[in-house]
Design a protein that fits this description.
The complex is a heterodimer of chains A (about 260) and B (about 270). Chain A is of the alpha/beta class and about 260 residues long. Chain A is about 35% helix and about 25% strand. The chains are: A alpha/beta (about 260), B mainly alpha (about 270).
């Protein structure tokens, strides 16, 4: 069940990547990621699973180009996301753990944000933003400010904001962890459907085994400091018995 | 089973009118009390101590209607606004540099703190010694006295911006201009308006000191004339010109705040 991809096929490629916070070698240094190798195919939905503090968010930030690796190479679509930050405008979108909506913008203006960066004309971006809000069940709330909306609605706006730019690579950092299980379940199903329908590559960070199994077609389990402890791929053909086997294996790896 | 009709006069519109009247009454009441006390005192004290407010009213009207005198009021207003604008622009730029470069912050912070400790009157003396032009002197004094507050307030606002929101906006790879327009400006605007409100009060006090000593026109200069004539009604009338100006600008800033920050949630329970 080990996933193998050649670098040429990789949407995301991490080559011997390490990240140390603080001065390396000093007592205060903290090694968040240690010599990590990881490749993600185009169109793949990768769930990265691990306990709190195992370096998931650091990997996420390095792929997003928000953090520079201390060692090794990070490549997204063959380019360095940190050094070539602007090249990724419109090519990568992020759904964060909290909705991170701009409080001074209405729902529709928040969804338009990424499109504004892409210089999409105002009328066109309004149509696109409204279309995504409607798709996510928020028709009629276009002009509401974030403070007037529930947590689930706000998170749906942040998903709409990410999808509106039509970026090929989606990065999601535990986007449903702050929601109640019923809302999270519904949004998760919507999210998977949208990713599949639109042929996106998605990296989904989570600490829930059930969520990883529900979302990913590949799961990577990390152990502190961010090293791959288990890597498994599956698809629709994987039966329930095999999924249970994967679940118990992941549980054992996390417990070890 | 019995039905009770709502008491007459308790309809929502009537309640709104009553509460508006109450609000108006509570904001006007303090002024009415002060006016009455002053007017009462004017009956028992000599005119040069407590002139009748009717005299003051006529003096105010005289200032408004006389072109030459109103030009003095306008000159003072222009000096305040020019000084504040200059300090805001310079302070904003300094704050941007300080937030971007730690070394600039380390260098400028102690200097600005030192400036904060220098009294406005000292700047007036320095300006008179250093410069010849009256207008430049006053501009210099206004900028130097309000610059540290503007800089520190903008710096605080820049540092207080949400890191999460900034990261979210950066994830869309904005240009510098777009980042400023979409994220930085709306995030720091509440602090900027507060800074203007605070510095407006300071500036209106400082400009009078500057004009009192170093100018040949303006409200401060006119106050000096009234002091030499022992004319309390005149002194009060000229002072009220500045008070009216500050109230008008504060009102305008509050109007901008109400319009620009309508996105804010309002709690039903106040702190």
């Amino acid at each position: 069940m080990r996933d193998t991809v050649t670098p040429g096929e990789a949407a995301i490629h991490l080559d011997h990547v390490s990240k140390v916070f603080g001065r390396e070698g000093s007592g205060a240094a903290y090694r968040a990621v240690d010599d990590l190798n990881l490749e993600v195919r185009f169109g793949q939905m990768l769930a990265i699973l691990g306990k709190t503090g195992c370096g998931k968010s650091t990997i996420f930030n390095m792929i997003a180009g928000l953090t520079e690796p201390s060692r090794g190479k990070v490549r997204v679509a063959g380019r360095d996301p940190f050094a070539e930050f602007d090249w990724f405008r419109g090519k990568m979108a992020i759904v964060f753990q909290s909705d991170r909506l701009l409080p001074w913008r209405s729902a529709v203006q928040n969804v338009e944000l990424g499109l504004e960066m892409l210089e999409v004309p105002a009328a066109e971006r309004r149509v696109t933003a409204q279309m995504w809000l409607t798709k996510l069940g928020l028709g009629g709330h276009e002009n509401d400010f974030p403070h007037a909306l529930s947590g689930g609605m706000r998170q749906r706006i942040s998903i709409a904001r990410a999808f509106a730019t039509n970026a090929n690579i989606l990065l999601c950092d535990e986007p449903f962890s702050a929601l109640d299980e019923s809302t999270a379940g519904r949004l998760r199903a919507e999210f998977v459907r949208l990713v599949k329908e639109n042929g996106k590559t998605a990296v989904f960070i989570t600490h829930s085994i059930s969520e990883a199994l529900e979302i990913g077609d590949r799961i990577v389990v990390l152990k502190r400091p961010a090293k791959i402890a288990y890597d498994v791929s599956f698809d629709g053909a994987t039966d329930a018995e095999e999924r249970e086997l994967i679940r118990s294996r992941i549980g054992a790896v996390l417990a070890a | 089973m019995s039905e009770t009709a709502p008491p007459a006069g308790s309809s929502p519109s009537a309640n709104a009118v009553i509460s508006a009247m109450k609000r108006l009454g509570s904001s006007v009441l303090p002024f009415v009390v002060v006016i009455l006390i002053w007017q009462f005192a004017s009956l028992f004290f000599p005119r040069f101590l407590f002139p009748s407010l009717i005299d003051v009213f006529w003096r105010c009207l005289e200032i408004f209607s006389s072109g030459a005198m109103f030009a003095d009021v306008l000159a003072t207003i222009f000096r305040i606004l020019a000084g504040l604008a200059g300090a805001f622009i310079v302070g904003g730029l300094l704050a941007l540099l300080m937030v971007r470069q730690r070394a600039v912050d380390d260098f400028l912070s102690p200097i600005l703190t030192l400036f904060q400790g220098i009294p406005a009157l000292s700047w007036v003396v320095f300006a008179i010694i250093w410069f010849h032009g009256v207008e430049f002197r006053i501009f210099f004094i206004m900028v130097l006295t309000t610059l540290p507050a503007f800089t520190f307030q903008v710096l605080g606002a820049l540092r207080g911006m949400s890191k999460d929101l900034m990261e979210m906006v950066l994830s869309f790879r904005p240009t510098r201009i777009k980042l400023f327009r979409v994220m930085i400006m709306p995030a720091i605007l509440p602090d900027i308006l507060t800074a203007w409100k605070v510095n407006l009060g300071n500036a209106s006090r400082v400009v009078v000191v500057a004009e009192l000593v170093g100018a040949t026109g303006g409200v401060g200069y006119q106050l000096l004339q009234q002091q030499q004539l022992f004319d309390m009604a005149g002194a009060l009338a000229w002072t009220l010109q500045l008070v009216f100006f500050v109230l008008i600008v504060q009102g305008a800033l509050t109007f901008i705040e109400n319009a620009a920050f309508r996105y804010r949630a309002v709690s039903e329970r106040s702190i």
